[in-house]
Structure formats: structure tokens, C-alpha cells
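Re: [ENG-882] Designed sequences occasionally contain unexpected residues at chain ends

Forwarding the minimal case from QA. C-alpha cells:
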């Protein structure tokens, strides 16, 4: 099997972190231009309070857990609320798209074992948004 890594190469060639990508994608959102996905009413959304969400990303060649403040809007027409998520985040997930692609690439290229892969994932899921922890050394088996 031949695997062409063009999407991963493009994503990894971007010289900024997943957090910077998130901040850049959400900084200039114009609420007045948003159309409600439920009732299709244009320009009826307004900002409401954000919520916290964990993002597991691959920055500096190591997995990192970061806490995001996700912007939300409420439609004045139908009352539904909607989170504003850029395409670097996966809805209802904690992993950035770059992290998932890197993990899959390392696994498919046989550069990491399933055991190391699972230990890192369990460790990252247990990490809190409020702590800045590093990934423990796994007996010489580097993930990246």
C-alpha cells in the first residue's frame, strides 16, 4: 500500500500552532453575517457567553492539552444556540485535526506502537484544561 501524505504535509507546513490557527479563525467573525442553521434566519444571531473546551493538539512535535474559550451565538428568531467552531476542531471531540492526522500517519508508517499511542491518548484525556503538564517519558519510545 502506498500512502500519499499531501494533506498532512500541507497542514504541517503551516508554521503556527493549532491555538494560533484557532485564534486567527475566530477573531474576525461577524455575527451580523451568520445565518441560523436551524431556522435559516439571516442576521438574527447575537453573542452569548462562551464555554470552555479542551483541545489536544500537536505543537512543537509533542502532544499538548490546551483550554479554549468557544464563542457561542443565540438566534433571536428561533432561540437555538450555536457554537462557532473553525475547521481545525472536530465537533464533539477534543482533538485538533492536525493531531489526528499526525497520529494516524505515525501509526500507518509504523513509527509508533499501539501501546504507546493508547498510553498517550489516555494521559491526554485525563489532563485538565487548568494544568500545563508534559507527556511522561515512555521508556525510550518517543511518540514523535
Amino acid at each position: 500500500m502506498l500512502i500519499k501524505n499531501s494533506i498532512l504535509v500541507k497542514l504541517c507546513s503551516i508554521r503556527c500552532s493549532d491555538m494560533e490557527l484557532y485564534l486567527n479563525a475566530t477573531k474576525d467573525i461577524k455575527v451580523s453575517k451568520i445565518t441560523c442553521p436551524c431556522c435559516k434566519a439571516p442576521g438574527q444571531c447575537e453573542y452569548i457567553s462562551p464555554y470552555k473546551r479542551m483541545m489536544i493538539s500537536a505543537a512543537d512535535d509533542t502532544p499538548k492539552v490546551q483550554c479554549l474559550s468557544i464563542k457561542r451565538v443565540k438566534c433571536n428568531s428561533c432561540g437555538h444556540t450555536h457554537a462557532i467552531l473553525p475547521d481545525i476542531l472536530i465537533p464533539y471531540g477534543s482533538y485538533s485535526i492536525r493531531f489526528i492526522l499526525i497520529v494516524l500517519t505515525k501509526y500507518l508508517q509504523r513509527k509508533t506502537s499501539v501501546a504507546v499511542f493508547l498510553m498517550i491518548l489516555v494521559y491526554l484525556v485525563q489532563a485538565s484544561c487548568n494544568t500545563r503538564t508534559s507527556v511522561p517519558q515512555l521508556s525510550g519510545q518517543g511518540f514523535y
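QA comment: On inspection the terminal residues look reasonable. Residues 6-126 form one domain. Proposing we downgrade this to a documentation issue.
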